[in-house]
Design a protein that fits this description.
The protein has helices at 43-52, 57-65, 69-80, 84-97, 117-130, 144-147, 149-157, 159-163, 178-194, 210-215, 231-236, 238-243, 257-274, 296-312, 315-342, 344-358, 364-377, and strands spanning 105-111, 135-140, 167-170, 199-205, 220-225, 246-249, 284-287. With 379 residues, it is of the alpha/beta class. It folds into 2 domains: 101-313, P-loop containing nucleotide triphosphate hydrolases (Rossmann fold); 318-377, Helix Hairpins (Orthogonal Bundle), CATH 1.10.287. The structure holds guanosine-5'-triphosphate and magnesium ion (MG).
Length: 379
């Protein structure tokens, strides 16, 4: 699939480092990364000027805090850029809006491919927007990082939501390693909060590590399940069920309803066995049909119960504080690893040391000592 074209406001410098492309095809008046009709009348010249202007950190900060979605989208693009220069500007912007973050309900939505995540978000998100909430939808999708493939799919599946003036949809950032994608998504979430979005939905595929990463950045982790997917599959998903604060059996419609109810009862038992009880909260299993719009209000009511319990018993605040610290630790680990691997002294001796270890001529601990000596010596 084609990568699409560059947005017209990508700066002349550091073109290659910009991760964002505009994909062709779906008209979307609100969101970044899609063809946009020219702004009407008197706003058109202003929009064009904005597109050309080199913005300062303060421009971004003011724009985001004022809820300007164009500037929000551009700031997210800075966050997603892999260039050093953009990284610095992005961090200034982030620091400038940090005090206005944290005022949202952060929800992770996960489940195996095809379980109905995007369709659920379309229905759930539209309901929330109609209730006057402001909803940002982000995705952490390791599979789409190269092809950008799921972006178009999700946009078509979230057609109503993407047109709603209270919504903001941002596809998965590209940019290689899952760790990088997670950082970008986390920082994007903060920018969206600063711009006034009070519900953040983060969709991720329930395979691999992405759901653990998303779990570490949300308040409430919602796992979507299919009825009758078989014991085998449910077994594989045990790890995910343990992380769930809320489980929703999807596609509970037409001739699937009876099966969904049976699955609900079975799963409720499994959840009681597996999940550690949290004070004031026992994970629930709910039914939903996104196509028939059933069960959507129940999900929202349960999320509210969960958030209330968390506030009342003080674990929600603690959870976020712990997530903040865990995130710092993860960044430190990542930075140290990079610094070690890129160190010239280490790079120079690593091939020979690896060969000796491979052939069993050098014990690993001794090899480590030599590498650390090279690393420290060159500081
Ligand atoms: N009957 C019925 N079908 C549904 C429902 N929700 C989703 N589907 C169908 O299930 C298929 C997959 O839905 P998606 O929303 O794309 O699933 P997803 O989990 O986002 O899939 P990936 O993004 O590929 O991981 C689509 O064909 C939907 O039309 C539902 O509530 N009822
Ligand atoms: Mg999807």
């Amino acid at each position: 699939m084609s990568r699409g074209t560059r947005p017209d406001w990508v700066p002349d410098t550091d073109q290659a480092a910009f991760a964002t492309y505009v994909l062709p095809g779906i008209p979307d008046p609100h969101h970044d990364g899609q063809p946009r009709p020219p702004a009407a009348g008197v706003f058109a010249p202003a929009a064009a000027a904005l597109a050309r202007k080199q913005l300062t950190a303060q421009d971004y900060i003011d724009g985001i805090l004022a809820g300007n979605r164009t500037l929000l989208a551009r700031a997210i693009t800075l966050i997603e850029s892999n260039s050093e220069q953009h990284l610095e500007l992005a961090q200034q912007v982030l620091a400038g809006v940090l005090r206005r973050t944290g005022n949202s309900v952060r929800l992770g939505i996960t489940g195996v491919p095809g379980v109905g995540k995007s369709t659920f978000i379309e229905s759930f998100g539209t309901y929330l927007c109609d209730e006057n909430h402001r909803v940002a939808v982000l995705a952490v999708d390791p599979t789409s990082s190269l092809s950008g493939g799921s972006i178009l799919g999700d946009k078509t599946r979230m057609e109503n939501l993407s047109r709603h003036p209270n919504s903001f949809i941002r596809p998965s950032p590209s940019g290689g390693a899952l760790g990088g994608v997670a950082r970008k998504s986390r920082e994007t979430m903060l920018l969206c909060e600063a711009a006034g979005y009070n519900i953040i939905l983060i969709e991720t595929v329930g395979v691999g590590q992405s759901e653990t990463l998303v779990h570490s950045m949300v308040d409430c982790f919602v796992v979507l399940m299919l009825a009758g997917a078989g014991d085998e599959l449910q077994g594989i998903k045990k790890g995910i069920i343990e992380l769930a604060d809320l489980l929703v059996i999807t596609k509970a419609d037409s001739d699937n309803v009876a099966r969904a109810r049976r699955a609900q009862a079975e799963l409720a038992q499994v959840v009681r066995m597996l999940n550690c009880p949290t004070e004031g909260w026992q994970p629930k299993v709910l039914l939903s049909s996104a196509v028939e719009n059933q069960g959507i209000t129940d999900v929202w009511a349960s999320i509210n119960d969960y958030m209330r319990a968390g506030a009342q018993h003080h674990w929600l605040k603690e959870k976020r504080q712990q997530q903040n610290v865990d995130w710092l630790k993860a960044l430190v680990d990542e930075a140290l690893k990079q610094s070690f691997r890129q160190h010239p002294g280490v790079k120079q001796i690593l091939p020979e040391i690896s060969r000796q270890v491979k052939e069993g001529r050098l014990p690993q601990m001794l090899a480590l000592k030599q590498l650390l000596t090279a690393y420290r010596g060159g500081e």
